[in-house]
Fold this protein.
Amino acid sequence: MKDLAQALPTYEDVIAAHARIAPHIHRTPVLTSEYFNELTGAELFFKCENFQKAGAFKVRGACNAVFGLSDEMAERGVATHSSGNHALSLSYAAGRRGIPCNVVMPRTAPEAKKAAVRGYGGIITECEPSTTSREAVFAEVQEATGAEFVHPYNDPRVIAGQGTCSREMMEQVDGLDAVIAPIGGGGMISGCCLTLSNIAPEVEIYAAEPEQADDAYRSFKAGHIIADDAPVTIADGLKVPLKENTWHFVSSHVTDILTASEQEIIDAMKLTWQRMKLVMEPSCAVPLATILRNPEVFRGKRVGVVVTGGNVDLAKLPWMAD
Amino acid sequence: MKDLAQALPTYEDVIAAHARIAPHIHRTPVLTSEYFNELTGAELFFKCENFQKAGAFKVRGACNAVFGLSDEMAERGVATHSSGNHALSLSYAAGRRGIPCNVVMPRTAPEAKKAAVRGYGGIITECEPSTTSREAVFAEVQEATGAEFVHPYNDPRVIAGQGTCSREMMEQVDGLDAVIAPIGGGGMISGCCLTLSNIAPEVEIYAAEPEQADDAYRSFKAGHIIADDAPVTIADGLKVPLKENTWHFVSSHVTDILTASEQEIIDAMKLTWQRMKLVMEPSCAVPLATILRNPEVFRGKRVGVVVTGGNVDLAKLPWMAD
């Protein structure tokens, strides 16, 4: 496997990424809800990356990686493994540049995501739903194609790309006291850390995680990376572990990591659909679920909430099982 | 029953309404979708009234009626009959003014709408799901309370209020060739006619209706009002017939009325949830369904699409029956 550029990204990389990806992404709107403000006692500003190209924030990092390649590297295409949104974001980005994209996805990933990857021209190889299987299958695919590996969250180009989201949010909302986003592998949170520690170091950064996949929470408390192999949670985008680059940002800049139960995540998701009329994934209901569980942390604060994506299988909504 | 002010509203009434209701409503965003533009060959601009206060455009007309009352009239409260969104919009408006609101609703209306009406402080009396029953039960309620009747769509104050929606859309989008909105009783379409015939008479106005409740379509073709008593359609907001004031606007200014089947409405609704991440009601998927059915009418045009509301029962989504 090709070596990754190991240097950590800088805020200059975020600025360069923003210019590079601007033609390929949406500047997504920030929505507010009087209902949720009253419910939480905080002022919440929802950054709607569910309206983003390819339906998720991950297109920021993917476009930055793809459009930063030299023509020679681009020719061999890109490849990745992903629980879903990075896969379709990389496929989207590769399609915009006209280069091939190979993706390794768990066979249990939502059908809607697999169909979307294929719709953008991505080539899928399935693996078992564990980190071990995913990495093994990927090594075979990467060996066969010689494509440039774009890791879904540990890649510095990806972290710099995700950092453009909180950069936009700071332009769109005045006087934020805190930002909260879901944490899986830590790409979005690392982007927030990178941007905010440079342009607004007074803003608190909270990460939100499912109780049933709380490896980042336990890592944060222990002071070193703890990785679980195959956690089970409805928040399918948040099952992956931290890696060295994201751990650097999480351990250096995150204020705290909060968790929520499966039922709290489902309730928050359903409430958002009902009251804000937003289709969001289970993964991106986790921040609101943790705010509702820990109102004292956020009361009276102006809080930016990253709504990370909206790619959900409408035939398998969690409350259908009720 | 008290006489309605029978004079038709003017565009000056729309301007006055806009100033009156501005503190109580959202200026809703206009969203676009590259996917739907490619699918239809038109440029579509979705005016997202599903993000509106109380979840639907009807809060515009309801607020205009409630906040235009003299203190003496307001004291006795307001009353109405409605298939849902007008009921909760009037309850919301009355609550903001601190006056009582009595509403007659079909017992078959979605639970989510009944709960929302009660949440805003409205007092519900149930009727059978037919126009005949609705009007009979309402007469009793109105007699008992002496409240000011605010008809859900035929009331001139309501039509002037709904006219503020297309006024905003014309400020938000340049060079529209056409506007399309669902038609039930015709309140939103009449508001569009009132505004556009005054400030942009070159803009075509299309009304979209379920095939299974196509009384407005048949009225338009026949040249006089045809009213059905209890049509059956998933688009529960569009079952009511035209009345004299809305018929005036529809017959004078509408370019054409287009229809869609139940399956086409469900498909358009699901596609919007999947691709635009918007929670919208079946009723407001009807315009997109008719655009997809009649692409030749819209191809190459810039089309404003009114997304009328997002109050849907998440436990009873139409594709759950698949």
